[in-house]
Design goal:
Distance between the termini: 40 Å
Number of domains: 3
Bound molecules: guanosine-5'-diphosphate, magnesium ion, zinc ion
Number of helices: 9
CATH superfamily of the largest domain: P-loop containing nucleotide triphosphate hydrolases
CATH class of the largest domain: Alpha Beta
Shape: globular
Length: about 325
């Protein structure tokens, strides 16, 4: 595949500053990014990201047997089908887009029943971001073995079951008991998937039991805060046996969606959109306006209170962000 003078197409499986690893066929190439691509307004963490399809040229006479490929140069990043991005605050104060991954088939948001506890609104804003960027969203609830009793379990299943009504696949799993692993395996098979969730929810553990060859590092939740420490530092794609890629990612403490205006979030909460047909005002933001269909739906119980609160939380955050000086798209 490494023919002198030609270039080939590959998939970026890992990207760092100025360098990346590209899967070209069955080889892994270590590549530099052509200087020309690094110029201009785009930030380094946005130019070449995991999942990008790129054209790479081989650097002749530089095969590095350790990686099983060679060295190359990324000459071109092919247009992205979609992406998952968040707002990254820079030390310099400016605000920029951070693309976590490009060209995904699906985003799977991972939560754990506890250790750490689910963060209110986290799944909701990630699914909203997925919808915004045309990515299919699914949910995995891990550590179901840590439910205190049958009632606790019932509550968790009911809560997460709501996402099924919204059309998302929901997998309830436990690395400890093996529950749900076949379903998770089926969800990932043949797909290009990004796993996102807080540190310590069990992303790497789940992947290790599903794909024993991966050997991902697993955190100990041992720092006393109930939050695991970060051990995965980059989004990294791993080939899934039988086709597809799975990306394990560093734990996210929060998620500030990129490029959603406060007034537009409504479009990414489809259940609220339906209820909003009954709002008196077309521009109703469902936070106390008169004759609000969403408020009525919450009172009736057809939209859960927590779902409305997740929406309001995101709305508040995005409005706060708009007020902050220096925010630019
Ligand atoms: N009880 C229980 N513990 C789990 C489960 N899955 C993972 N863990 C533990 O949770 C901790 C964090 O797991 P890790 O895979 O590193 O989480 P990540 O940060 O999301 O990749 C480790 O100590 C795992 O052993 C599970 O299903 N049940
Ligand atoms: Mg991990
Ligand atoms: Zn309303």
């Amino acid at each position: 595949m490494s023919v002198e003078g030609t270039s080939c197409e590959g998939i970026v499986i890992r990207s760092g500053s100025g360098h990346c690893q590209v899967a070209v066929g069955s080889e892994i190439w270590r590549c530099r990014v052509r200087g020309r691509l690094r110029q201009g307004p785009r930030e380094a963490q946005t130019i070449v990201v995991a999942g990008d399809r790129v054209r790479v040229a081989n650097v002749v006479g530089n095969a590095s047997p350790g990686v099983g490929g060679g060295e190359g140069v990324v000459e071109e990043v092919l247009p992205r089908r979609n992406r998952i991005s968040r707002l990254a605050a820079r030390r310099s104060g400016g605000r920029v887009e951070q693309v976590l991954m490009a060209n995904l088939d699906q985003l799977v948001v991972v939560q754990s029943v506890r250790d750490p506890e689910p963060q209110t609104g986290f799944v909701d804003r990630l699914l909203a971001a997925a919808l915004r960027f045309n990515v299919r969203g699914a949910v995995a609830l891990n550590k179901i073995d840590l439910c205190r009793d049958a009632d606790d379990r019932e509550r968790e299943l009911a809560h997460f079951g709501y996402y099924r009504c919204l059309g998302h696949e929901v997998v309830v799993a436990s690395m400890a008991t093996g529950e749900g692993l076949p379903e998770l395996g089926a969800l990932l098979a043949g797909q290009v998937t990004l796993l996102l969730g807080a540190s310590g929810v069990g992303k790497s553990s789940l992947l290790n039991v599903l794909y024993p060859g991966l050997g991902l590092r697993v955190n100990d939740v041992s720092d006393g805060t109930g939050l695991g420490r970060h051990t995965t530092t980059h989004t990294e794609l791993h080939p899934v046996p039988g086709g597809g890629f799975i990306a394990d990612s560093p734990g996210l403490r929060g998620f500030d969606p990129w490029d959603i205006a406060p007034g537009d979030i409504r479009a990414y909460f489809p259940d609220l959109e339906t209820a909003a047909l009954d709002c008196r005002f077309r521009g109703c933001l469902h936070r106390g306006e008169r004759e609000c269909g969403v408020k009525d739906a919450v009172a009736r119980g057809s939209v859960p209170v927590w779902r409305h609160e997740a929406y309001l939380g995101l709305l508040r955050d995005l409005e706060e962000r708009e007020r902050t000086a220096g925010y630019r798209k």
